[in-house]
Design a protein that fits this description.
By secondary structure, the protein is of the alpha/beta class. The protein has helices at residues 27-39, 57-69, 83-92; strands at 3-10, 13-22, 44-55, 75-79, 99-100. The protein has a single domain (20-100), classed as STAS domain (Transcription Regulator spoIIAA), CATH 3.30.750.24. It has three helices and five strands, in the order E-E-H-E-H-E-H-E. Strands 1-2-3-4-5 form a five-stranded mixed β-sheet. It is globular. It comes from Nonomuraea phyllanthi.
């Protein structure tokens, strides 16, 4: 399955909708979008994952990248995370650095 993403920025919140499979080939695109969001001075990142069917370790590295690039104290929230994607995040322990709903 292909990967698509779309970002919307309102105030200090960037919302990115992800669909498809986030893997080694699509991760650089997400990192580029996160860099754009940081450039717009956002303090909160919301990732809508209800259409994301797969996340590899490269996808988890994208979350770590976002955590490192956002200003200290910023919040990353994952919304609509499918169980199989949530499990990948939990296995790395990164679920303690973000909010998953």
């Amino acid at each position: 399955m292909s990967f698509t993403m779309k970002m919307n920025v309102e105030g200090d919140t960037a919302t990115i909708r992800l669909a498809g499979e986030l893997d080694g080939s699509s991760a650089p695109d997400l990192n580029d979008l996160v860099t754009q969001a940081v450039g717009r001075q956002v303090g909160r990142l919301v990732l809508l994952l209800d259409e994301l069917t797969y996340m590899s370790s490269a996808g988890v590295r994208c979350l770590v990248f976002a955590h490192q690039k956002l200003p200290r104290g910023s919040q990353i929230t994952l919304v609509g995370t499918k169980p199989e994607v949530a499990e990948t995040i939990r296995l790395t322990g990164f679920d303690r650095s973000i909010v998953m709903r």
